[in-house]
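Before relying on records like the one below, remember that each one covers exactly one chain. Contacts with other chains, cofactors or solvent are not represented anywhere in the record.
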Amino acid sequence: MPKVISEADVEENVLAILESLGYEIIRGDNEEYLPGEHSALRLDFKDVILIERMRAALKNINPSISEEAREQAIKHVLRTESQKLISNNEHFHRMLVDGIDVPIQTAEGEAYKKIQLFDFERPENNDFLAINQFTVRENNVERRPDVILFVNGIPLLILELKNLADENATIWTAYDQFQTYEDQMPTLFRYNEILVISDGVGARAGAITSEKERFMQWKTINGEKPKRGLTEIEVLLRGMCDKHRLLDIVRNFIVFEKDKETKKKLAAYHQYWAVNKALKSTLAARKGNKKAGIVWHTQGSGKSLTMIFYSAKLVRELDNPTIVVLTDRNDLDDQLFGTFGRCEDILRQKPVQAESRTHLQELLRVSSGGIVFTTIQKFFPEEGRE
């Protein structure tokens, strides 16, 4: 009789993959790590940040910053800013990506020091930990998410796993579970960057505001077609949770789009790889023939977001270059400009739309900097001029 695969087996498989990626593994039911024990990871079950791990990581990453300033940064991380989960999540994401400005006293008066929560340039300089069945108590409710990935003591990625053999539990049961968790444990989800749902074979990733259709497969490990026989969950874990890629995704491939309500969006796998290959080609083109190439898209593949992620990473890598977004129709120009405008935080600036040839010339007269939208018609010579 074939062995029945249990949810615990699915968990163990996930933990084994993460261990092979260099994560430290701790079993959440190991009593020595529980609050009150000699190797306790936290003081109380309501604590979702592993403070001592964060404290050690901040000292390692910011060795020249005083202990007092680092403690102030930790207080910033723990402080609740809003009654709305998405607002708190966005506020934390900004601290994670940009660092925390902490006031310090100097001989010349008050100054600000930037404290980084992650070392994005050197992934191995961070603390990566995976815990299964991590007990969280909040609002008189106790829950145990299946697996949580902590980076520098921060619960960055949560996996909810269901048993493929249970016909009443599907991958979408895991999705529904997350909706309940968000209501019951908002403190845990304040720090979350990526949610993963899986039935042990299939797997999808999304963000805290993602509808079902925005939870998507991650179909490659290294940008190439994966070997036959690998499950979706293994491809996703090895593709997204590799230390370098996980930090790259968190820093450059998550956007908060502001409309009537804020939507947090995670890049799909094809957007991630297209942007990084385009960026590599662009950097090489600066030193070569100045031709970076073309990215082909299909309808509905998320072209606008790909352009936003590419522009944002270009701004970071090239120290604020001038970017011109060129279309051949006014309606398309308006549409793209609107989308970029709703995502200006990741771009670190407010895009500008050229209203005329003269306005375009003024916008391009700067030595560098800015994201300019225009139609190709504004580059045509004026009547009577060649």
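The chain has two domains: 7-64+120-266, 270-379.
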